[in-house]
Design a protein that fits this description.
The complex is a heterotrimer of chains A (210), B (102) and C (497). Chain A is mostly helical. Chain A has a domain of 128 residues: Up-down Bundle (Four Helix Bundle (Hemerythrin (Met), subunit A)), CATH 1.20.120. The longest helix of chain A is centred in the first third of the chain and has 32 residues. Chain A starts with 6 loop residues before the first helix and ends in a 12-residue tail after the last helix. Chain C is an all-alpha fold and 497 residues long. Chain C has one domain. In chain C, strands 1-2 form a two-stranded antiparallel sheet. Classes of the chains: A mainly alpha (210), B mainly alpha (102), C mainly alpha (497). Chains A and B meet through helix 2, helix 3, helix 4, helix 5 and helix 6 of A and helix 1, helix 2 and helix 3 of B.
Chain lengths: 210, 102, 497
């Protein structure tokens, strides 16, 4: 049974290939950033920002472009780790931790499990539709509009301050107690839904009284 | 200090990439991955606004916690449905689920 | 630390719903151990719905809030009662259907209870985060409920499309909310309204983008064209009672949220969004009614007709004012009653005939004149025939919208109402003019017709619930004053004098 799971071989190859590819693309980027940092063009936070931004965009590109679902899922992990780094930069340690745990851990494992259970074949499959050119155009237009809107505004930005865990807890559990409770119901619904929907039903005619 | 715009532009690009993924992909699991990217873009936006514009009340950080929670729950639920569909017709591609016309 | 009001008694209707959902789940899970009859589940659900509806009347004409997150006022009470009424009606009218078609009954009723809870939270919320999480609770419950008909392969497919597109819509809505949060620096409606009233010059474009995204995200939830792609599929694939909830609770909840948003925090930037809503209203009512002309499945027909109805409702949101908000609430009340009447009658029909094809309604006037009468009255009311609810509420709605200056849009709405009469009449003609299946042709020699008795009876529960809804449709049509007053009181909260 175990031997039939394609997971280890696939992951091995994925890591080798992905690592190779990533180093080819990422190495020059990191070198450039490092040089700029060393010459004082970039401050330390800026250096960290560009590093993480590269990780986010690279991971996201991998997640939406690669033809292999496992590669795409690993791209999502990369992007999530980058987002966690961005959260650290924005002084919210708690969110960074949650992001790594929930996305890097939970969501990705869940996705890979779903993948293993729905398609146990090894190798790339056709995953993209014929609507790709249209999607590409729409993506470009959307990105242009959004970036334009963001740059047009004049935000009255203040200084970033670190949010302590204590203050965050008070805010979350006291001021936003109601959404918190409702969110627990959302999780309950998702739990019940996933169990009842995915459970294998007894065949017709069999006794279904459990 | 890094200007706020940097974070916002990063989030905009991430959102657009996710949107592209939603439109271009056919596999339900890949569409889910793209939706997760869009939600991550929302989190970046929320946290950046909270850190720069609302540092005393930081509602955006609370909002991001909820976004992450709901996103994770959504993946679980959607995978449950994918699993059921797969059992019924041995495919996880959206456009092979076509007994209902779009 | 600020002083917040943590008076949990304000949330009694929501607590009742949540506790009832838990009890229903556990009762179903342990029904063999507890020696419970499963038929108790729908009864208990109805009791919980009635309890929630009645207790919410305790806060009529008061105005209070819970931790500045949820407001408990006439507007909230109006929607709490509307949702509770919808839930009770749907459960009574469909328990036979559920017993036969749905294997996981406890989960099914729990999803209905939680969807109602989520919708109430949306209607009561005073803050973006709370509204969003209420919306997600409503959506998640419906994602699950849509996929629960495990014997129907269409159900899982509808569920998948609904959950994927719903996820995209949520992300879009959230991005919009994040931009509004960024532009206003707060998520509380009151604070947003204050900031925007003081001027939005330096964040003009992000705010505009945020409004577009919020309207797109919410437009998906109320299935406004062009964000309606999921609606016909989800309606067709879902079990019939879920379709009823989708077309009633889900829509009313999103309309409540729209009203709260656009009459409060976003009112100062009215010039930015008014035209968007007018355009969407136009496309929605035109596309919904025109595509409805070609449908062969009764669920898809009702899906497109409900899209058309959303167009009329958006018309009132676009021209928001005291008068049009009250007219919209009145129309929503009338629409809910009428629409539920159609759905309950269709469920009664399905229980007997196992068919959703419009063609199978042929000769219903012969085989079950009562159901044919209910469907006819409700469809006429939906198209806006005088003496029925649809006419009165639409008349007041269009009048209010016309006063606010969208005369051309109102004219188109009237034309579209007439078109909708055409496809409703097709169904009615089938029921009254054509012969039922199995009726023999007249004897060629004598010309006499030997009719076998094709009559069948509706079950008592369906009978009772459709009778109440039919009476409601006629009552609102003839004497709308009580509902109008309730709508006025509720709308007055949004526009304090």
């Amino acid at each position: 049974m175990l031997r039939r799971l394609p997971l280890p071989a696939q992951i091995d190859r994925t890591i080798t290939l992905g690592g190779l590819l990533a180093s080819v693309v990422a190495a020059p980027y990191i070198v450039v950033l490092g040089v700029l940092f060393a010459t004082g063009e970039l401050s330390a936070p800026e250096f960290v920002f560009w590093l993480n931004a590269g990780l986010v965009v690279g991971g996201a590109l991998a997640a939406v472009l690669l033809r292999h679902i496992v590669h795409a899922a690993l791209g999502l992990v990369g992007a999530s780790l980058g987002v966690a780094g961005i959260f650290l930069l924005l002084a919210s340690e708690f969110l960074a931790l949650v992001q790594v745990l929930v996305y890097g851990g939970g969501v990705t494992i869940l996705l890979l499990f779903g993948l293993m259970m729905t398609r146990a074949t090894d190798g790339p499959i056709v995953t993209d539709g014929a609507q790709k050119p249209f999607a590409f155009g729409a993506g470009i237009v959307l990105a242009g509009l959004f970036v334009g809107a963001m740059l047009d505004a004049e935000w009255d930005a203040l200084n970033v301050t670190v949010v302590g865990f204590r203050e965050l807890g008070i805010r979350l559990y006291r001021d936003f107690g109601i959404p918190f409770e409702v969110a627990s119901l959302v999780l309950l619904v998702a739990l019940i839904g996933a169990i009842t929907i995915a459970r294998r039903e007894p065949a017709p005619g069999e006794d279904d009284s459990k | 200090m890094i200007p706020l715009e940097n974070f916002l532009v990063l989030s905009a690009i991430l959102f657009a990439l996710g949107f592209y993924g939603v439109l271009a992909r056919r596999s339900a699991i890949l569409i889910l991955i793209a939706v997760e990217l869009m939600l991550a873009a929302v989190s970046i936006n929320m946290v950046a606004f909270a850190a720069y514009l609302d540092p005393t009340r930081f509602t955006g950080i609370i909002f991001a916690i909820f976004v992450i929670t709901v996103a994770a729950a959504e993946v679980g639920l959607a995978l449950g449905i994918v699993l059921r569909l797969f059992r019924e017709r041995a495919s996880a591609n959206v456009d092979e689920a076509n007994s209902l016309k779009w | 630390m600020s002083d917040l009001n943590f008076d949990y008694t304000l949330l009694i209707p929501e607590l009742i719903l949540a506790v009832a959902a838990g009890i229903v789940l556990l009762a179903d899970a342990f029904h063999t151990e507890l020696r419970l009859n499963r038929t108790l589940l729908p009864g208990f659900t109805v009791l919980a719905a009635l309890a929630a509806g009645l207790t919410s009347l305790a806060w009529l004409d008061t105005s209070d809030d819970f931790a500045t997150l949820l407001a408990v006022d006439n507007f909230t009470a109006f929607f709490r009662v509307l949702f509770a009424f919808t839930l009770a009606t749907v459960v009574i009218g469909s328990y036979e259907f559920v017993a036969r078609e749905i294997r996981h009954q406890g989960e099914f009723y729990a999803m209905f209870l939680l969807a109602t809870l989520g919708a109430s939270v949306m209607a009561a919320s005073q803050e973006l985060l709370t509204a969003y999480i209420g919306l997600e609770l409503l959506s998640f419950s419906l994602y699950v409920a849509v996929s629960l008909a495990k014997r129907d392969p269409r159900s899982g497919e509808a569920g998948l499309k609904y959950v994927l597109l719903g996820g995209v819509a949520s992300a879009t809505l959230l991005y919009g909310l994040s931009l509004i949060y960024g532009s206003a620096g707060s998520t509380s409606y009151a604070a947003i309204s204050e900031t925007f009233a003081a001027g939005t010059a330096n964040v003009e474009l992000p705010l505009l983008l945020g409004l577009v995204l919020v309207i797109a995200g919410l437009g998906f939830k109320i299935s406004a064209v062009p964000f309606h792609m999921w609606t016909p599929d989800a309606y067709e694939g879902a079990p019939l009672p879920v379709t009823a909830i989708l077309s009633a609770t889900s829509k009313a909840g999103a309309i409540a949220l729209l009203l709260r948003l656009f009459s409060g925090p976003l009112l100062p930037v009215k010039d930015d969004w008014q035209w968007m809503l007018a355009v969407i209203s136009l496309t929605t009512m035109v596309a919904g009614n025109l595509i409805a002309l070609q449908q062969t499945n009764i669920k898809r027909l009702l899906a497109y007709s409900s899209i058309g109805q959303v167009g009329y409702m958006l018309l009132a949101v676009a021209t928001i004012s005291d008068a049009s908000a009250s007219a919209l609430l009145l129309h929503l009340g009338g629409y809910t009653v009428t629409n539920l009447a159609v759905f309950m009658a269709v469920i009664a029909f399905y229980n007997r005939q196992r068919s959703e094809r419009i063609a199978d309604f042929r000769g219903l006037a012969e085989t079950n004149p009562y159901l044919a009468l209910v469907i006819t009255a409700a469809l006429f009311s939906l198209s806006g025939m005088p003496l029925l609810a649809g006419f009165t509420t639409k008349f007041i709605l269009f009048q209010a919208a016309a006063q606010d200056g969208y005369l051309w849009l109102v004219a188109i709405a009237v034309v579209m109402s007439t078109i909708s009469l055409y496809y409703y009449l097709l169904v009615i003609r089938l029921m009254y003019v054509q012969e039922p299946d199995g009726a023999p042709a007249p004897d060629p020699q004598t010309g006499r017709l030997d009719r076998p008795n094709l009559r069948w009876r509706t079950s008592p529960a369906s009978y009772a619930v459709t009778a109440v809804l039919l009476l409601g449709t006629i009552a609102i049509g003839l004497y709308a004053t009580p509902l109008l007053e309730a709508a006025d009181d509720a709308a007055a909260v949004l526009f304090p004098a």
